[in-house]
Amino acid sequence: MTTEERGVDLVVDVAGPSSLNESIACARRHGTIVAIGVLTMQFPPEGMDYATLLMKQVHLRGLLVGPRKDFEELLDLCAANQIHPVLSPETFTFPQLKEALRQLQSQKHIGKIIIKVE
């Protein structure tokens, strides 16, 4: 689906080993796969396309989030100390996504860029 079947720059894989081959196939050469989910516990996945992973020189990164209790404690700490995220004054709608990404890429904004999905 990408121009000249180039592949995508970033694949966010939330399923885990069961979809790793599809993620490798979608990634461009020197692309990145971020694995953040595990729906199956088979490591490494049976039939993993290791050769394509090597040939494309894909970066494979694992990302874990902490337990819910830690997140709740962080939220309590922020509330108790009046810590708030810095938000960009401009809000984009989903149809303005390209404009929002250009704003992000320009690095001229201050704070988080908000995209409303309605």
TrEMBL record:
<dbReference type="InterPro" id="IPR036291">
    <property type="entry name" value="NAD(P)-bd_dom_sf"/>
</dbReference>
<dbReference type="InterPro" id="IPR052711">
    <property type="entry name" value="Zinc_ADH-like"/>
</dbReference>
<dbReference type="Pfam" id="PF13602">
    <property type="entry name" value="ADH_zinc_N_2"/>
</dbReference>
<protein>
    <submittedName>
        <fullName>Zinc-binding dehydrogenase, putative</fullName>
    </submittedName>
</protein>
